[in-house]
Structure prediction request, 260 residues.
Amino acid sequence: MEPPGTRRSSSQLAEEATGSRRPGIDVPRSTIRPVVLTLAELGIEASGCTRCPLSAGRTQVVFGVGDPEADLMFVGEGPGHEEDRLGEPFVGRSGQLLDRLLREELGVGRDRVYIANVVKCRPPGNRDPRPEEIVACRPYLDRQIELIDPQVIVTLGNFATRLLLGTEAGITSLRGRAHPFGRAVIVPTYHPSYVLRAGSAGEPMAGIRADLVRAHEHLAEGPRQNYLGGRRPRTIGPPGQISQGRASSFATGREGSVAR
Ligand code: SF4
Prediction:
């Protein structure tokens, strides 16, 4: 919280918020809540949100988890049953896979990255989030990205990738490279649930491993150089420190080519 007397007016904050928008983020000015200053405040605001019909069926809002100053951020689709029950993103089987891949390819736990979703409330029956729900929830994700200011954003699956890149193209054509995104880059990859369905020997598993290696390399080579000792401590070590998993993924020489 800012000290008394230093709080800026709503109009000043609105100008700051809109003035700092990045390519790929296209939030109507009227949807931004300029009074929200910190990630914690944003989480508190989201916890009571009724901006879309998903609020009616949720157990709780699943806002996000991890290091609020992470260099690496993951964005998935929306909470499932376990996430809705426990209030944390990616805690079911998909989350277990993501945790394992984080350990094997980057050598870190989820406490060293930040994980969020496109929509913060569980769609009933685990259906896809609807366009109007994504639009309603988008200001929370945009503000999370602004506040965390990651160096690399890994989008998991079509919904997060298409939303942030502002495209209708599919994940198969978008993954395999990094996309500029303001001060960050976006590294699109498959959603872990798709990787699970395809099996551990499938192309998507090789693809998501390769994408995480790509993300790791961009952390080391990113435009801000934070990762190698800039204005804040790095949260993930250099790629050379990792790992059995990384070596094995290179050894396979395979990348996924199957659409989600
Ligand atoms: S999904 Fe997002 S916009 Fe909809 S009620 Fe939940 S927090 Fe609010």
